[in-house]
Amino acid sequence: MSPPAAIFEIPVASNDMGIKKDLAVKAAFNVQAKTVAELENKWEKFTFAPIRESQVSRAMTRRYFNDLDTYAESDIVIVGAGSCGLSAAYTLATKRPDLKIAIVEAGVAPGGGAWLGGQLFSAMVMRKPAELFLHEIGVPYEDEGDFVVVKHAALFTSTLLSKVLQFPNVKLFNATAVEDLITRPAPTSSDPNAVRIAGVVTNWTLVSMHHDDQSCMDPNTINAPLVISTTGHDGPFGAFSVKRLVSMQQIEKLGGMRGLDMRTAEDAIVKRTREVVPGLIVGGMELSEVDGANRMGPTFGAMALSGVKAAEEAVGVWDERNAQNKDA
Ligand code: AHZ
């Protein structure tokens, strides 16, 4: 988090309140320490730079509303910031700094099920060749032959998250649920009911959770020609986009996630990560609900590489559609 510029900038509204002089004096004191170490043994004299509550409010809201404005038209929306969604975001933002990428995550804490390994144990197992993704993001591991072990799942997730959040072309909207999909008639289909996905419909998650006991609380929207959905397997919020595809009659029914088989599950998820209907790429465990694929339980290689493949698919679809638009 960068220091609020307002510490060194006098807010116009405050000039008549005598704060300007005060700020200058205290800021001067504080900048004398250039490192944290230089603060040592100075705690008696220590004070924070002054602040007014409205400066904090404005520092947050100005940025958030600016982001809402900027990302109302996104290039790609990623729904769900679990291990698959974050891997997709990292890969996409690395490959294509020119694209505006919004991540919408229902939870307050991004990371989905990747803060712990299986049965709430700490270590995270990844089968090879998923260690290549760990090299890419700089996460150390122990090599056990055919698989590797990261000493704590939180090390993987926090490292990946910190990298994703630093990209200038990525914005994470957490505590925000995708409540619906924006659709348009699919131009190339002979089926008059066929649609392409053209963005997402959002609401604060806490609002989404109260549609049953409050009067109508309408949502907000993000337009995007391409959505990557990685909302995990079925659950209160999970498998969101693909369940909506069924209720919109865009796919007939879900295959339903099958029992645990690590041997087949991981290959299946990575290989089948794809554009399921025009404009909607599905990856991670959400895909197991579409295809009736097995679950893999506490091995995370497929989530990382499904994210990598979802990003690759997205770039392919994006470039192909742009080329078509230029031709048209
Ligand atoms: O909060 C959800 C989580 O962080 C978020 N999400 C779900 N529905 C949403 C919605 N709007 C916005 N409508 C939503 N966000 O999506 C994230 C999904 O993360 P996850 O970790 O559950 O999914 P994943 O596919 O990235 O990883 C799955 C991890 C599992 S489960 C499993 C098994 O049971 O076999 N094995 C693995 C590896």
Distance between the termini: 44 Å
By secondary-structure content and strand pairing, the structural class works out as alpha/beta
Biggest sheet strand line-up: 6-2-1-10-13-12
Unreliable stretches (pLDDT < 50, length at least 5) are 1-25
Ligand identities: ligand AHZ
Largest sheet: 6 strands, mixed
Shape from CA axes?
globular
Mean pLDDT: 91
Radius of gyration over alpha carbons?
23 Å
Task: Estimate the strand proportion.
Answer: 15-25%
Number of strands: 14
Number of helices: 10
User: Could you estimate the helical fraction of the residues in percent?
Assistant: 25-40%
The string of secondary-structure elements, in order, is HHEHEEHEEHEEEHEEHEHEEHEH
